[in-house]
Amino acid sequence: MADSNSSSQFYAHSQYFSVSDIIVIGAYFLLNVAVGIWSSCRVSRNTLSGYFLAGRDMAWWPIGASLFASSEGSGLFIGLAGTGAAGGIAVAGFEWNATYVLLALAWIFVPVYVSCGIVTMPEYVGRRFGGERIRMYLSALSLLLSVFTKISVCLGWNLYLSTVLMLVVTALYTIAGGLAAVIYTDTLQTFIMIIGAIILTITAFNKIGGYTNLERVYLQAVPSKIIPNTSCHLPRPDAMHLFRDASDADLPWPGMTVGLTILATWYWCTDQVIVQRSLSAKSLTHAKGASIFAGYLKILPFIFIILPGMISRALYPDSVGCVDPEECVKVCGAEVGCSNIAFPKLVIELMPSGLRGLMIAVMMAALMSSLTSIFNSSSTLFTMDIWKKFRRHADEKELLLVGRLVTVFLVVISVVWIPILQSANSGQLYVYIQSVTSYLAPPITATFVLAVFWTRTNEPGAFWGLMVGLAVGVSRMLLEFAFPPPRCGLPDGAPWVLRSVHYLHFAIILWAITTAVVMAISLLTPPPPPEQIRNLTWWTLSDGSSPDIPMQKVSTISRRTEGSLRRSRCVRASGFCSPHPSRAAAAAAAGTTLPTIPSTREEPFWKHFCCANAIILMCVNIFLYAYYA
């Protein structure tokens, strides 16, 4: 499947937009900036808690909308429709699987993270295991994944000038307002995405005569120019099924259940971009409500993105469904296929003037929500986990300045990266990006799950488990990059193990290897001391807030110096642990330390209300899986 940057040529050669389209797009930009400025004024931007965690005072509905918008970046927005056009509805499993992992985030992982008062994911493993090597490794890995996979996917689809413009606009309110600006603008963009997608979906279904005709017209969508003696031009006969054959399907059912859950646990429960939003909630109940709301929103892409992608192939088989390399180059500039123009093609062909501009704004909204999320989370990671490592006595003003400067640096890197993306082979780049995520995530998932659920897990076990997992994952990734999937009609010279073990099945194997290594080495080495367990695992949570949890756990590798103790008190006084920065500043001025990490206590009524809604959400999800299985 072609990478989404192929759609840039599609836009370039498409008809010009009308004045009303340009007005709508301009109005969207102005509205976005206005919301960013408004939200920047709602919380204190001059405290670490205010800038990086929105003052820990966010309600459930903007957090839920932000969780959804952050996961629906333009690469995924266009890629989902393209994958739906190429292979049918099975890709909906990537969206619906998130339901269970989102609930696990709010009910299992967030209580652990909140009880120990962390700001970043590497900070959690630093406290849980002690030492610096795991924390620094995860910080560096997360930054690399953000810059070279997430931003790459986001920037691949658009023209150079418009992408630079969006980078500048998003950077302005991200730098100024921090996480609060990101969450509120994500909420606006979620609303715009849903409204625009509803209009497009209704128009597309009217064009083919309704949902009942979808399967018939899709299976008849064969391009006029095909490659003889091949079947790659034919739509998949199992296009309307979620669960597919375990051995030779494009998305086998074991991988879509177990393997995908491993990858989703990394993304939703351990990735800084996502967890940072849940940590900004004003209470654990609001974090749970946000996960439930996001779970319902994640049902929608099947209706509003994947099914329109299938309709696009049915309406335009010669362009969206092309297989002949010469024909594909004419259509979208890529030899390997043009399925990723499915969504833009529908917009250009079906939307009237004005609404066409709205839909372009929808895709811009997806891009901007992804970029703001990545910029803010990456600056948090660098500031709190890398800069503070070398500047242990940095004051609050310095850390805030560094956080903003890192955002500027990321914007510059992103602009430099755009021409590299556009000149690369789109098919190889797509495979590369997917491989980086798929082959590096399972070891992180295994480490976090064992850290939370198994108190015997220690630093040597976690570190060497991550290193073995990294070696195995990178080996497979290099093979994938060296032998990209051939285009239709060409022989495949890849090793047997590469094509016979699906990447989702490989994720299961890699997770099992890492888990075995972590457990074996942990059992062969001394257990972790009590301070590395209390309030840091599911089984050792205290009921409510704790007055004496140190901000930085240490072990044999990190030295317990007077400087580190002063740093601990300084950080606590800076408002990290308290949802009231003003009280923190007053306590610091008085020479005292504030007791506290946010409480995990909940009001019984709202606790039971959230549990009931979570059960309803899972029932809806199970029904959809059963209906389309």
Structural features, described:
- This protein is mainly α and 629 residues long.
- Helices cover 69% and strands 0% of the residues.
- Helix 4 packs antiparallel against helix 13 (272-279), helix 5 crosses helix 15 and helix 8 runs antiparallel to helix 9 (133-155).
- It starts with 6 loop residues before the first helix and ends with a helix.
Largest sheet: none
Helix share of residues? 55-70%
Low-confidence parts: 1-15, 155-159, 423-431, 544-597
Please tell me the overall pLDDT.
Answer: 77
First and last CA, distance? 24 Å
Counted by DSSP, the helix tally is 27
Radius of gyration of CA atoms, rounded to a whole number: 24 Å
- Relative strand content: under 5%
What would the keywords be for this entry?
about 625 residues; single chain; about 0% strand; mainly alpha; disordered N terminus; globular
Summarize, please.
The protein is mainly α and 629 residues long. Helices cover 69% and strands 0% of the residues. It has helices at residues 7-13, 19-40, 48-53, 60-71, 74-87, 92-96, 98-115, 121-129, 133-155, 160-208, 214-219, 253-270, 272-279, 284-297, 300-315, 317-320, 325-332, 342-350, 355-390, 396-423, 426-453, 459-482, 496-500, 503-524, 562-573, 581-589, 604-628.
